Amino acid sequence: MVHTLTPTADLKQDVDDVARLLTAEGERIADRDLDPWVADVDTAQLRDLYRDMVVLRRIDAEGMALQRQGQVGLWAPCQGQEATQIGTARAMRADDFAFPSYRETGVTYARGAGPEGYIRAWRGEAHSSYDPHEVGAAIPQIIIGAQTLHAVGYAMGIQRDGTDQAVATWFGDGATSQGDVNEAMVFAASYTAPVVFVCTNNQYAISEPVGVQAAAPIAGRAPGFGIPSMRVDGNDVLAVTAAMRWALDHARTGQGPAFIEAVTYRMGPHTTSDDPTRYRDKDEVERWRRRDPIARLEAYLRNQDAFDDEFAAAVAAESDEVAAAVRSTCLAMTTAPALSILDNVYAEPHTGLEDEKTWFAAYLDGFAEESAR
Amino acid sequence: MTQLTMGKALNEGLRRAMRDDDKVLIMGEDIGKLGGVFRITDGLQTEFGAQRVVDTPLAESGIMGTAVGLAYRGYRPVVEIQFDGFVYPAFDQIVSNVAKLHYRSQGAVKMPITIRIPWAGGVGAAEHHSESPEAYFVHTAGLRVVAVSNPQDAYTVLRQAIACDDPVVFFEPKRLYHTKGEVDLDGDIADAAPMGLARVARPGSDVTLLTYGAQVSTAMDAATAAEDDGISIEVIDLRSLSPVDYKTVTASVRKTGRVVVTHEAAREAGMGAELIASVTERCFYHLETPPVRVTGWDIPYPPAKLEKHHVPDLDRILDAVDRVLDRPNSLTGVEL
């Protein structure tokens, strides 16, 4: 049904050796494996995906701006990766569960985290921005690859509960070098766990090009674990949607894990602390700008007469509205009191920490008395 | 009351925890058909099936990371790390996720994971099979750490650890697995002393001897031997290393004014250092002499034929007791 990738003869990381449904010019092409999974996708659904991607890019730009203005401490931009994030996350059911990394703003957005959900942790007010059980997504993981094991464990829980839910986990090309990602694939394959591995190959782990992590396409590894995989154009939201639907169906129907390598590009820096001009040239960035996922879908929709100025203006207005909500939520945040840093270390009382809390409270009270005098 | 070995008491603890709560499942290497290399999980897969008694791939980080995911889903995983020296590949998952998720999520995500570790030396084992890594975990906020010394505590504290909504690192002294003792299996766990409380294993008036795990037996032997010299040692079995029950500890120190700590783990930045620093902060004016640590040396665990020189024995403990009593001892006249 779905081709399993075999390494190309020269083993180079050919970014065009991918399954694709929309060309960079917005032309719809056929793919035997992907087509059946998006047969029902009409222009109305594609317009929704377009709107999501534009909103995400706007949220991302707002995050960058808030960092530059000193309102958030750090931001990990996802510009360029919108099709990968929206295409995968939007293919999930509400009762599925997501285990994203820190760059998956689009996943947490698509899962339904509100404005607070993208900003609280980056502002440094808390380590998490939402309740995972409400959003259906774990707290974004910073330890590279660690979340893939959590996803497999959650999927093992689903198996024991006997439901047809599925789990997806996102990680980068760099993460595939981590032991945890490889262990996750071993556990998932051994237990036939309903989990989808989404490797966002955005070409860089901070400064290291993907060739440092992998001498052959990453999707080629999964079959060695007994996991079928697909390598898709991560800037083609239709292809990503198709691949994710295939993978989720595979997981949901008891066939076990599936693996997607979405080949894309991180247009911005690793984080606001990074300077990508030190390790990649302008021409490369320009080449990828011409493969932009949003422009591509717009071109396709225009070809279908499904895109006009009115739609563009409505999407832009909605994006600005979401961004304004992110900004006002961010600026309205208040910092928790000092003593609260000792809360929630344990779920049950811990006498050692209670002693420290007593001491710290007494110390803080000393200042209160001083200022009252 | 039933006469049980510590191993059998642990087995019963797991069995009854699984019967009482179908969210409890156990996972680890060789714990299914084999029943674990120490047979602690013997018979459990037959009773509860392979979905609840899970033989895992041979990857400790994988075991711990999938336990995190199961806990996210509402399960209460009990993880067996086959040997103390094999826990290090799981260290990142334990420190970065197991210990921190409740804090990171501001209380939204609980991690009721019990990490069972067959622990410490004295059994003539191969390299990496006799380690005492407890200080790493005590140092890590978000974890509770316990170490048991007898079959009754093994049963009771294991049940409490599994019922606890926090992650608990549960140390099982290998050299006591075959030690027998009376165990009350039918008492209500809710009536037992809460997890976290120390136990005065033997009352005394001259010296407070703080210890935990298998060293409790050695300390008890030392106290019996000292009695012949007219020295009364109060032995305190800490049971919980995080938190430490300082109420019990300081009450004893205020009474005796003299403290010896013994553990198998190396001395540097170990449990003894923490205990003595905290006792000194709280009881300085009650101390008659400087506290003394009797620990494993600051070396990698030595070969089996030499381990008797590493694990503090009765004589080394008594030598330290002589020091805190200002009696002639091995360091008399030695300036360190």
Strand/helix succession of chain A: HHEHHHHEHEEEHEHEHHHH
Radius of gyration of chain B: 20 Å
Q: Give the % helix of chain A.
A: 40-55%
Distance between the termini of chain A: 78 Å
> Number of folding domains of chain B?
2
How would you write the strand order of the largest sheet of chain A? 1-2-3-7-6
Principal-axes geometry of chain B comes out as globular
Number of helices of chain A: 13
Using a beta-carbon cutoff below 8 angstroms, give the protein chain pair with the largest interface and the number of residues from each chain. A-B, 44 and 51 residues
The CATH topology label of the largest domain in chain B is: Rossmann fold
Largest sheet of chain A: 5 strands, parallel
Fraction of helical residues of chain B? 25-40%
Classify the beta-strand content of chain A into a percent band: 5-15%
Q: Taking Cα atoms only, what radius of gyration of chain A do you get, to the nearest Å? A: 22 Å
For the record, the count of structural domains of chain A works out to 2
**What is the CATH C-level name of the largest domain in chain A?**
Alpha Beta
Please give the count of helices of chain B. 11
For the secondary structure, the number of strands of chain A is 7
Low-confidence stretches of chain A: 6-10
